[in-house]
Structure formats: C-alpha cells, structure tokens
Amino acid sequence: MGIFSNILGKIFGHKPKAAPAPAPTPQAQPGPTPQEQAHAQAPAPVDIEAVLEDMAANNPQKLNWRTSIVDLMKLVGMESSLQERKDLADELGYTGDKSDSAAMNIWLHKAVLKKLSENGGKVPASLMD
C-alpha cells in the first residue's frame, strides 16, 4: 500500500467521536422506494475538513494541518520524516528538487488535498489554494 493510500484510508475511515446514537425503536414502516435505495447506495462525499477538524479537536498537539504536510501527516497518525515525504512526492509525481524541502512540502500539501478531492473527498476551495 502506498503512502497516499494510507493517508486516504486514515481520513476516509475516521469515525468522529460523538455521543452514541439512541437505540432505534422498532416500528413498522414501508420499505424504501427504488429511487431511495439507489440514493442510499451512492456514497456521500467525505467532508475532509470536518474529519480533519474532528481529528485535531481530539489531538493533544496543536497541529497546523491546513498548511503543513508534516502536521497533516502527524494528525492522521503517520510518520512525517523527510524520507517519508520524499517517498510521497515520488508517489504523487513531484518533479521539483526534493532537496528544497520547503517547496516540496508546499507542493505535497496541495497535491494530497487535490488527490483526496479526486478520490471522493469534499475539500473546500480555501484549502485547495
């Protein structure tokens, strides 16, 4: 599994820490219509900002995940070493100079958010800039 796939899995698999839902009460209700079934089967886009905000709220560190790839990787529980970021850059097709880690990190952050969007994530424009 690639590094981006790992990021994707951690974000898309995140379950918010919320109060448990009340137990459903059994009631006789008619079954869903075919249109309702089709709509229910279509997965809703994952709200990337909401998921990351929830992760940040439950993280003891104050991480600047909105602009930092290092902090984004830490937030989802991944190693954020320079080598790991270089490997991610290779995986995502970075063609710049990897010895210029600042430029690479900026590119990586944008590329990861773009790839999250391409894979079913809802990413606000403010994070894509």
This entry's quaternary arrangement is single chain
Shape: globular
Distance between the termini: 28 Å
- How many helices? The count is 7
Structure description:
By secondary structure, the chain is mostly helical. The chain contains seven helices and two strands. It has helices at 3-12, 34-41, 48-57, 69-75, 82-92, 101-118, 125-128; strands at 46-47, 121-122. α5 (82-92) crosses α6 (101-118). The longest helix is centred in the last third of the chain and has 18 residues, at 101-118. The chain is globular and about 60 Å long. The mean pLDDT is 86.
Quick summary:
The protein is mostly helical and 129 residues long. It has helices spanning 3-12, 34-41, 48-57, 69-75, 82-92, 101-118, 125-128, and strands spanning 46-47, 121-122.
Keywords:
mainly alpha
List the helices and strands and how they pair.
Blueprint: H1 3-12, H2 34-41, E1 46-47, H3 48-57, H4 69-75, H5 82-92, H6 101-118, E2 121-122, H7 125-128
Parallel strand pairs: 1-2
Helix pairs in contact: 5-6
